[in-house]
Specification:
The chain is of the alpha+beta class. It has eight helices and 17 strands. The strands form seven sheets. It has a four-stranded mixed β-sheet with strand order 12-13-17-16. About 25% of the residues are buried. It is found in: Cytoplasm.
Length: about 400
């Protein structure tokens, strides 16, 4: 998303309550906390909370993206430097300030001669227009692109098997969405927006002040490049309304805890038919009592008896989609891991990981007299055979 003019007026760090040098994790935590507190579902009919929710969402969409955050910081830093050199105040009209009784023109920072600042013979309006994808002056019937909607983020929780095998989840979000009455155009059904006659659809107008030229948003169409004579009564001409909607998310097999799934065009609606942002679904995977995961392999600990390890046996082992027979060879040592190929998590490139089964002796906590007698005889026979479990143990 190209830089927005609103970046000059909005302090996204302040909106999230974090420092300008906050880490990505601090930004994420602050956003999630505020999103829960300000969500429209938690604040019904509270317009102030709704506006803050939108601001917090926009702040997160910019600061959570390293490229957007750098662009935002650079843009803010450039204009902060301009204010510092030219005095206090904002950038109204032609983006100049007044200091000490003399008018300060931000173009002076970049020069107006050959090889200076924004380019030979150019002015800062050219640079400003380039930053915001807008030319310095309207040309022909070029139409300003309306602002793309903000990206949104939500969360869902899956069981271990759902994450490993894939599933579908229906989530509910409350956000700005294209108006269903005007289909996002902002105009009353049966009518259409028309090209703004003041800016000829460019969204900006230019004016001269002495030797300098300036471009600024068209006040007649508010920078959109179009005018709506008969606004949609549902969205008041914005082309979007805040509503709650269900969205079905298809979870691919093998998604990991903390993974993000992108749903293109399911984020906040753009202004007057502009493209919607994207929705990112952060996946949380609940721990499982039986299975753990290592990459594409699934791990399980199998309780066995001492006799089963010594004599060997075949046991039934659970998998992600049923069970499988596993042969335990005779004289298997406690803690050995046996591999069942192809019964792990599906791989993106095809195939699947393996099921890793670690055998662990389960010691009985209570034996009857017959079992104690038999075990005592076995211990004696074991010793008579010369077996010493601690042979060569404890020596260097």
């Amino acid at each position: 998303m190209a830089p927005q003019r609103e970046w000059l007026e909005q302090d996204f760090y302040k909106a999230l309550g974090v420092a300008p040098d906050a880490s990505a994790d601090e930004i994420k935590k602050a956003y999630r906390k505020l999103a829960r507190e300000l969500h429209p579902d938690a604040n019904p009919n509270d317009s102030a909370a709704e506006e803050r929710f939108k601001l917090v969402s926009e702040a997160h969409s910019v600061l959570a993206d390293p490229a957007k955050r750098k662009e935002y910081d650079d843009t803010r830093r450039m204009f902060a430097g301009a204010r510092g050199r030219g005095g206090s105040g904002g950038f109204p009209g032609g983006y100049g300030t007044t200091t000490g009784g003399q008018e300060f023109n931000i173009n002076d920072l970049f020069g107006d001669g050959a090889g200076a600042g924004a380019g030979a013979g150019g002015n800062f309006s050219d640079l400003f227009g380039g930053l915001f994808n807008r030319g310095a002056a309207p040309r022909g019937n070029t139409t300003t692109r309306n602002r793309r909607g903000n990206d949104l983020e939500t969360e869902t929780t899956l069981s271990f098997k759902e994450a490993a095998l894939g599933t579908s989840k229906t989530i509910t979000i409350t956000s700005s969405a294209p108006c269903t009455n005007c289909h996002g155009s902002g105009a009353k059904p049966g009518t259409s927006p028309r090209v703004c006659p003041t800016c000829n659809g460019a969204g900006v107008v230019s004016r001269n002040q002495g030797a300098f030229g300036f471009s600024e948003p068209c006040s007649d169409c508010r920078g959109t490049g179009s005018k709506i004579d008969d606004p949609c009564p549902v969205c008041d001409g914005d082309g979007a309304t805040v509503r709650t909607r269900p969205i079905t998310v298809r979870i691919p097999p093998g998604v990991s805890d903390g993974g993000r799934i992108r749903l293109a065009g399911q984020g906040e609606a753009g202004l007057r038919g502009a493209p919607s942002g994207d929705l990112y679904v952060v996946v949380h995977v609940s721990p499982d009592r039986t299975f753990t995961r290592s990459g594409d392999d699934v791990k399980v600990t199998l309780p066995v008896s001492f006799a089963e390890l010594v004599l060997g046996t075949t046991v039934s082992v659970p998998t992600l989609d049923g069970s499988v027979g596993l042969k335990i060879p005779a004289n298997t040592v406690d803690g050995r891991t046996l591999r069942v190929r192809g019964r792990g998590v599906a791989k993106r490139a095809g195939g699947a990981g393996d099921l890793l089964v670690t055998v662990k002796v389960a010691v009985p906590t209570k034996l009857d007299d017959a079992a104690v007698e038999a075990l005592t005889k076995y211990a004696a026979a074991e010793k008579a055979s010369g077996f010493d479990p601690r042979a060569n143990w404890g020596t260097s």
